[in-house]
Amino acid sequence: MLYRHYDIDSSFQYRVIKKKNIKHLYIRIKDGEALITANKNISQSHISEFVQSKSSWIQQHLKNSKTKEHLTDKDALIYLLGKRYTIKVIHDLTTKEEFMEIDSSTANFVLRSMPTHNKLQTLRDNYYKKFCHATISPLVSQYSKEMNLQAKKITYRNNKTRWGSCSSQNNISLNSRLMILPKSIIIYVVIHELAHIKHKNHSLRFWRLVEHYCPNYKELRRGIRAFESLL
């Protein structure tokens, strides 16, 4: 894996990550930075042309990423299954355990001490991990049967770089932060990772398999980008 930094028209920077086994160019916005993943043999001139063609999209998403609020900020939000919830901090010196709970419109954080972004994020992630089994596991079971593809093992983790992965041993790891996403996108991620049991790449056969069970996968792939800054 090779990392290189480049400037473009002095308006923003982007970082190139070169890998061996990918065919296409990919853009990801992470922590206020544009990351371009490319095959190690693709020339910088080709990458520059690609970045120029996506310049408006990159700048808009960089702006959104840079203005992303911490969970302690006034207008910060919690997302659950695509729905947004305002944050309310409840101080309770008698509570034995700090936690987050969600009602119809509010994510309530019950705390003994002052809130920090990291604390609220940890409590949010604990909430996601607690309920992702009940929410996502039935979808895995359903599509495993429909696709006739069975993972050797399913695990849920807090991951800051990807929504899911499938190992060469057919162990599937799903990000508990999938709970942020609308259910339709979660289903796409499940189908995507199950398809990797049969195809360990992103070949045409892989995408045909995904499309068979998720005909609007291209639309959902575009939709997931709006949530990437929340990872």
What's this model, at a glance?
38% of the residues lie in helices and 27% in strands.
Shape: globular
The SSE order reads EEEEHHEEEEHEEEHHH
Helix content: 25-40%
What is the radius of gyration? 20 Å
- The total domain count is 3
In CATH terms, the superfamily of the largest domain is Metalloproteases ("zincins"), catalytic domain
Distance from first to last alpha carbon: 22 Å
Beta-strand proportion: 25-35%
Protein architecture, described:
The protein is an alpha/beta fold. The chain has three domains: 65 residues, no CATH class; 50 residues, no CATH class; 99 residues, 2-Layer Sandwich (Zincin-like). 38% of the residues lie in helices and 27% in strands. It has six helices and eleven strands. The radius of gyration is 20 Å and the shape is globular.
Question: Layout of SSEs?
Answer:
Elements: E1 2-8, E2 12-19, E3 26-30, E4 33-39, H1 44-53, H2 55-66, E5 77-80, E6 83-91, E7 99-102, E8 106-111, H3 117-147, E9 153-157, E10 164-166, E11 171-175, H4 183-198, H5 204-213, H6 217-224
Parallel strand pairs: 2-4, 6-8, 9-11
Antiparallel strand pairs: 1-2, 3-4, 5-6, 7-8, 10-11
Helix pairs in contact: 3-4, 4-5
